[in-house]
Amino acid sequence: MYKPVRRATERHPFRREDSQPRLDAPGAGSGSPLVKKQTPTIVNSLAWNTLGNSAAILFSLAALVVLSRILTPFDFGLYGMAITVLMIPETLVHGPLQESLIQRKTVDDEHINTINTVSCGLAIVAFVLICGFAPLIADLFKTKELVPVLQVTATLLLTGPFTATAASFLI
Q1: Cα(140)–Cα(19) distance, rounded to whole angstroms?
Q2: Mind listing the pLDDT tens digit for each residue in 40-85?
Q3: How far is CA 42 from each of CA 39, 50, 102, 170, rounded to the nearest angstrom?
Q4: What mean pLDDT is predicted for residues 121-143?
Q5: Which of 35, 62, 142, 146 could serve as 29's disulfide partner, Cβ 3.0–4.6 Å?
Q6: pTM over 0.70
């Protein structure tokens, strides 16, 4: 039976008197040489997240600069309109479902399969809607040339669900 030491001067209040770690205590097993500490600090996670987001922004900016040099101003405008239209369904398809995996304490294969299936289904629905409403969206922008650009760039929505779930485990 475990008896926690209740002295305020004790360095490890959740250890037994014979200095063996309690398995039901917070941070249990942290003193054992066989158990490695696997929980990163908040500062470390924040630093890596900031670094990843900064790198993504820099690569996007570099791609934007390269595209602005390659494409004509009209074509670059078409590209900008297509990306603007695709940002909303991309956020809906990739964001909330994968975040639910991050928030779970335990993740089973059933959870992963469900998220993949629902994400693929949403991506297909978004693809069909964008392709179907491409002429109306082009009328909103008063640019008929936007229709084929939207239809081709909408295929990017179909590739996202396959990478988003795996990427959520890296966070």
Answers
A1: 71
A2: 577 777 788 788 889 989 998 999 899 999 999 999 999 999 999 9
A3: 9, 12, 15, 15
A4: 93
A5: 35
A6: no
**DSSP letters of 124-140?**
HHHHHHHHHHHHHHHHH
Residue 34 pLDDT exceeds 80:
no
What's the mean pLDDT in 157-166? Answer: 78
For tokens 């900016």, what's the residue?
Answer: 61
The whole-angstrom separation of Cα 135 and Cα 80 is 17
Nearest to 148 by CA among 69, 78, 71, 72: 78
Contacts of 161 (CB under 8 A, 6+ apart): 93, 94, 116, 119, 120, 122, 123
- The rounded distance, in Å, linking the Cα atoms of 136 and 154 is 15
